[in-house]
Design a protein that fits this description.
single chain, 460 residues, alpha+beta, globular, binds flavin-adenine dinucleotide
Length: 460
């Protein structure tokens, strides 16, 4: 008798859930994970997802939900060639915009950029800000509780959701597509699935929150020399600009150097070179003069230089530079599998101390490290990236990773700020998370996925 995977393949072939052009040999966008899947399916409706899940549950086939596959932790990649990868790409309808209620109903497979532009077409804003908006899908954003550049003002992905539809491991459909802003009628079940990285259910639809579109905007780039200035700058900008402060991105000059080397069309962001930069964006839903506001407070800000602009080309160059850092580091440090990345969070006032202590601890033990840090400073999220010009052994890499994460955790921070756990950080979960928290997570997993078929080898 044919095995369950073969039966499912025939079923899928007849029903049109396969894409003849797609190969089951998969690779994530960073080139860090390669794996063959047993089957790659493209359902086009919640009912089809439900049918597939019910079949897989009955026949004990593992299922890996996949959206844009842009995640950094290998969460959307299968871990064996017996697993079924369920791509949400064909479930891509923007179903309804309710502008008066500031909500939008979408299929999980809509691209983030599509959601953003549909909101703009209705004079609204969907504020999730990721440089990969053209490639990632909203279901993947919600399942990984993505962060990005606007968290300071609008929160993480989980803060932008009112309702969800989820297909459970056994194929049953949990439909909770509320559009109301108040609902205390029992446990808030959607929160279980937001940030669960496909291990508790498949998100098939969502009701998203929309916001008024900004009417005024200004961008500034600040150059400064001393790490301690980070704290003053963040405090002063928050105090003086209040709600208008939307983005506050930190970069080191080393990142700029790497980006300019990678893309010769980019320009040095300021006339002079500074060791540290802050890219600041203010906006307001009122028609007001934010440029004057920044100009007024500029002399009191503790930085050596501030360039304030409303010119689209300058703003584009600054943001493009920022978006180039990951690609430039990947190219420079390919021999390390794109470098040792640490997506960490600390409270902002601890960041200078962390950066100084960490660098000296690392260089004490490993002389030739290339450290290039950028991050969403506004919310205390740093991408602490380390490369070398020569290879490192597996134990050296682990030693470096533990040095960084031990330091972060000793300061009360997080070892995964916005990228999640996936397959990359599983061992860190048991190393750093409280045993009670891990036990509760296992209980929830057991309850929602008793046969352990949803995205096995991820998170837990
Ligand atoms: C250049 C670059 C910049 C980035 N910048 C940021 C950033 O600023 N902030 C940030 O947070 N991330 C960032 N990322 C990481 C990544 O883009 C985000 O995590 C994004 O939200 C992932 O979306 P995706 O559609 O690619 O999901 P995938 O990578 O396909 O999936 C992510 C996880 O969710 C699960 N999943 C996917 N779809 C579903 C579904 N419908 N139901 C249930 N589970 C599902 C997968 O199994 C996987 O575990 C960046 C990535 C790149 C390449």
């Amino acid at each position: 008798m044919a095995d369950a995977l073969t039966v499912l393949r025939h079923k899928a072939d007849n029903a049109g859930w396969l894409d003849s052009a797609a190969s089951c040999q998969l690779q994530d966008v960073h080139g860090l994970y390669q794996q063959r899947a047993g089957l790659l399916l493209y359902p086009d409706s919640t009912e089809v997802v439900s049918e597939i899940m019910a079949f897989c549950y009955q026949h004990e086939l593992a299922v890996v939900p996949q959206s844009g596959n842009t995640g950094y932790v290998g969460g959307a990649m299968p871990t064996s060639d017996k697993q079924v990868v369920l791509s949400l790409q064909k479930m891509n309808k923007l179903l309804d915009v309710h502008a008066a209620n500031n909500t939008m109903l979408v299929d999980a497979g809509c691209r983030l950029a599509q959601v953003q532009s549909q909101a703009a077409a209705h004079n609204r804003l969907f504020p999730l800000g990721l440089s990969v908006a053209d490639s990632c899908l909203i279901g993947g954003n919600l399942a990984s509780n993505a962060g990005g550049t606007s968290v300071l003002r609008y929160g993480n992905a989980r803060d932008l959701v009112l309702g969800l539809e989820v297909v459970l491991a056994n194929g049953r459909i949990l439909e909770q597509l509320q559009t109301v802003r108040k609902d205390n009628s029992g446990y808030d079940l959607k929160q279980l699935f937001l940030g669960s990285e496909g291990t508790l259910g498949i998100i098939t639809k969502a009701v998203l929150k929309l916001f008024p579109r900004p009417q005024s905007q200004v961008t500034a780039l600040l150059g400064f020399t001393q790490l301690q200035q980070i704290v003053d700058l963040r405090d002063d900008l928050s105090e003086q600009c209040g709600e208008s402060l939307v983005a506050c991105e930190y970069w080191q000059q080393r990142c700029v150097q790497q980006a300019l080397r990678y893309n010769a069309n980019l320009q040095q962001p300021l006339v002079d070179i500074y060791p540290h930069y802050l890219l600041v964006e203010l906006n307001s839903t009122l028609k007001c003069d934010l440029t004057s506001l920044l100009q007024q407070i500029a002399p009191q800000l503790n930085c050596e230089h501030i360039a304030i602009t409303e010119h689209v080309s300058t703003i584009k160059n600054w943001w493009q530079l920022r978006a180039t850092f990951p690609k430039a580091q990947r190219q420079l440090w390919t021999h390390l599998g794109s470098g040792l990345k640490h997506d960490i969070a600390l409270s902002v006032e601890q960041i200078p101390e962390f950066l100084v202590t960490m660098k000296s601890r690392l260089l004490e033990q490993f002389e030739h490290l290339d450290i290039a840090v950028f991050g969403h400073l506004g919310d205390g999220n740093l991408h602490y990236n380390i490369g070398t010009m020569q290879s490192l052994s597996a134990s050296e890499k682990q030693q470096i990773n533990h040095l960084v994460y031990d330091q972060v955790m000793s300061m009360g921070g997080s070892f995964s700020a916005e990228h999640g756990i996936g397959q990359a950080k599983r061992s860190l979960l048991t190393r750093y998370k409280s045993p009670i928290a891990v036990a509760l997570m296992r209980t929830l997993k057991q309850c929602l996925d008793p046969k352990q078929l949803l995205n096995p080898g991820k998170v837990l």
